[in-house]
UniProtKB/TrEMBL annotation:
It comes from the Bacteria. The chain crosses the membrane at residues 36-54, 61-80. PROSITE patterns: PROKAR_LIPOPROTEIN. It comes from Cypionkella aquatica. This is Uncharacterized protein. Keywords: Membrane, Transmembrane, Transmembrane helix. The keyword Membrane applies.
Length: 104
């Protein structure tokens, strides 16, 4: 393995760990609910989900018929629009994608 790849993996892994660990240990009781820090912390979850979606969807877009991708995405959007639950939307997307792969 090349040193550059190992160094990059360690840096990204360390930053990811720090980004997930330190907010759980910080005392956030003093921040304003409509302040910039609160808005930043509230947006990290959807931003991470969007990043993972793009990274996983790009290879599927080169396929001839990306039906499972379309059904999974539609399930996520429909459930999130109706429930506003990220957990339920993620599970619905997984089930929709899995069913489409299994049926096709």
């Amino acid at each position: 393995m090349r040193f550059e790849i190992l160094a990059l993996a360690l840096i990204v892994g360390g930053c990811t760990w720090a980004f997930r660990f330190f907010p759980t240990k910080a005392d956030l009781s003093g921040i304003k609910p409509d302040g910039i820090l609160a808005r930043f912390l509230a947006s990290t979850g959807p931003a991470a989900i969007a990043t993972l979606f793009v990274a996983s969807a790009l290879p599927m877009l080169t396929a001839d018929v990306p039906v499972p991708l379309g059904l999974g995405t539609a399930a996520v959007l429909a459930v999130f629009a109706s429930t506003r639950s990220v957990v339920m939307a993620t599970l619905a997307g997984s089930v929709g994608y899995g069913l489409a792969v299994w049926l096709l």
